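Same chain as my last thread, 210 residues:
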Amino acid sequence: MIELHTRVVFWRPPKSLDATALADGERLVELRHDAIERISRNYRQQGMRGDVARIARRFELGARFFAIEGDDGGLVAWTWVLVGVPRYLDEFGWLFELEEDQAWGRDAFVIPSRRGSRLLLALADAAAVMEARPLQLFSDVDPANTASMRAHLALGLRPLAKIRALAIGDRLVIRQRPSSALPRIEQVRPHRRLLWRSDRELGWHRANIA
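reply #2:
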């Protein structure tokens, strides 16, 4: 299997603690490990896999799940956020070590009927202030997803770097060297353009895919 991966990494500096207002009846909630089935069900309702094991692994690796709940109790938007814990970009074999004042959002989603209603901005603001103090906010986007690219720019995030990698099977990754603008990268041999994973590294890689 040969796959070409391209991502744009976005960044937003810390901003004020003012949160974006939600509509009447909506509220921001954080769902935890005991809500895995509910999260999975909402994924499936939107035509996504909702893999329970993968959702559980995200919690185990320190990710947090924030959502906006509608007045009927259903979820209308959600995102995963990592705060001060590593973000593994598995397509590149890079483990970003985030500082305590850094957050990384991923897989933000708004149900089709509520798109264009500033819910992504509300989620981004929640991610940026979840520790009751302003946080730097990072995210990564496939540039082919033009709607997501536009949304990130509208949220006040700016592109830091465009990165590419060619993955051949599980073991071989041919990638560019990381930009100095990116957060600190600790794994796996990040400055090697050609990465051939050992058995140990392959096991670590698979255990950290989430």
